[in-house]
Design a protein that fits this description.
Length: 496
């Protein structure tokens, strides 16, 4: 249908609806206009298309909690134990009865090192390093989990493990790659959270659709929450856990009243909207208008969302907030539950500091401590979502950037750790639209390669977007042709 709002701001000398609203004055109109147009599908990157303002098909999930462990946890000492590592410990790959994984065609097909191939040794250590922890089968499903995850092991019948993930970057730019799908040598793409934000309408006008807890902590990992050419309005909004100051960038001055700040925002909106009439295609300006509007509304909504004072003692204990070792992860995960409960579409959680899972040395010591710091809080999140009925509405993703090498890392005379390993690793999902107590895919007997076609990281993206009711291949931007690998394919085998 023809709509005058899609046309330039003047048609035959007459003001359009957009110009009329802008000229009315920026009280309520200024606050509401950006959100109205955005939800109407009209104010999008490059005024692209309204087709993604609604879902492409019936969604199975309303929201996503995406948990990312920075540094690369060992799939072998967590969720993909390999008895062969103990049996053949100290031997080289070519001394085992298995095919030498370094000679597999999968190696060159999937691996892409920044350094020259002839000097790269990061994933080709030939001496097998034994597992550093025991493991058992758990639950009615009999899924193997190592002994470092006693609490999560009790919840395996709620989880869906994907053991044949792979990526291509063997360094920590893989932290961005798991979120964007692109190797660092290529043109970067928006993050998965930004695509979800771009494709979905809001469930709560007073909270960000894409909230970030605990990260990113470095400028070079900003891409993991960035929106790039989708426009800055679709980027993740980092929040802190201080109810008195969860939005440092939007905090009201100490000597400024609520009414004074409201008048200030009204004036800013009026000036911005008057400029927007003259430059209707300026997405940076539109993003700035919406940022002011949302920041103003969030000043009341966000503090309440991250205020745990009304949570019961039993709930805070469930997340481990009463223990120093688990407090940080527990707070961030409880905040994520509260945010999705209040309508946030995508909550991206970094429960551990940057890079701490990177166990080149002392893997046993590092993983013993780190698993203990997140095991109880993550298990508590799953239990809490389930008992509140939210596990039928929220999809949880638990992931890292890559796995760790089956071979002992030898660089620098190493004797106690594993290097980065993009060729095969494990993530898990839980909740809305996902099978429970289920294992999909596998790595070989030594945990080296993801078997079969495996799943590149954008298959995970496509799966998450599919559960939210979005067809990843329909989220296109004029002038921005994505590669087929950028889209990925939903992992239908894990869906209910």
């Amino acid at each position: 249908m023809y709509d005058i709002a899609d046309q330039p701001h003047r048609v035959s000398g007459q003001p359009t609806r957009r110009a009329f609203l802008s000229d009315l004055g920026m009280g309520f109109t200024g606050l509401a206009l950006g959100a109205m147009l955005a939800d109407d599908g009209r104010v999008r990157a490059g005024e692209a298309s309204a087709q993604h303002a609604t879902t492409h098909f019936t969604p199975r999930a309303k929201s996503v909690i995406w948990i990312f462990l920075s540094g690369g946890y060992s799939h072998l000492e967590t969720f993909d134990p390999k008895p062969a590592l103990n049996k053949y410990a100290g031997m080289t790959f070519d001394k085992t009865p298995f095919e030498n994984p370094i000679n597999s065609p999968l190696h060159k097909k999937r691996f892409r090192s920044v350094s020259a191939e002839e000097v790269n040794v990061r994933d080709v250590y030939p001496t097998i390093y034994p597992m550093q922890v025991g493991w058992k089968k758990h639950g009615e499903s009999g899924i193997e989990v190592t002994d470092w995850w006693p609490h999560l092991a009790k919840r395996v019948d709620d989880l869906c493990f994907i053991r044949n993930m792979w990526t291509t970057d063997n360094d920590h730019a893989a932290e961005n790659q798991i979120h964007t799908g692109r190797h660092r040598l290529d043109e970067q793409q928006p993050s998965i959270g930004a695509w979800a934000h771009y494709g979905l309408g809001t469930l709560n006008d007073n909270l960000p659709k894409f909230a970030v807890l605990g990260g990113p902590t470095r400028s070079d990992t900003r891409l993991s929450i960035d929106s790039l050419y989708l426009g800055p309005q679709h980027a993740g909004v980092p929040l802190t856990l201080d109810p008195k100051n969860p939005l440092p960038f939007g905090q009201r001055k100490a000597n400024q009243s609520f009414n004074e700040q409201q008048h200030e925002y009204d004036l800013i909106n009026k000036l911005n909207e008057l400029t927007a009439v003259e430059y209707p295609e300026d997405q940076e300006l539109r993003a700035r208008i919406r940022a002011y509007e949302l920041a103003f509304r969030m000043q009341s909504a966000v503090p309440e969302a991250v205020d745990f004072s009304k949570e019961t003692a039993a709930t805070t204990k469930l997340y481990g907030i009463d223990n120093d070792a688990t407090k940080l992860a527990g707070q961030r995960l409880l905040a994520a539950r509260r945010l999705v409960e209040r309508g946030v579409r995508f909550a991206q959680v970094f429960p551990s500091p940057y890079g701490v899972w990177d166990s080149h040395r002392k893997l046993k010591d590092n993983h013993t401590r780190l698993c203990a710091s997140v095991d109880l809080p993550v298990a508590g999140l799953i239990q809490d979502l389930k008992q509140r009925g939210l596990l039928d509405e929220v999809t949880v993703v638990f992931c890292t950037e890559f796995g760790r090498t089956p071979g002992l890392e030898l660089r620098g005379g190493g004797t106690t750790g594993r290097d980065h390993h993009p060729n095969g690793f494990t993530i898990w999902m839980a909740g809305a639209g996902v099978k429970r107590g289920y294992v999909h895919g596998a790595t070989d007997e030594l945990g080296y390669h993801a078997l079969g076609e495996g799943h590149y990281v954008t298959d995970l993206h496509a799966t998450v977007l599919h559960l939210l009711g979005l067809n990843n291949r329909h989220l296109e931007i004029p002038g921005r042709k994505r590669l087929d690998i950028d889209h990925g394919s939903p992992i239908s085998a894990i869906m209910t």
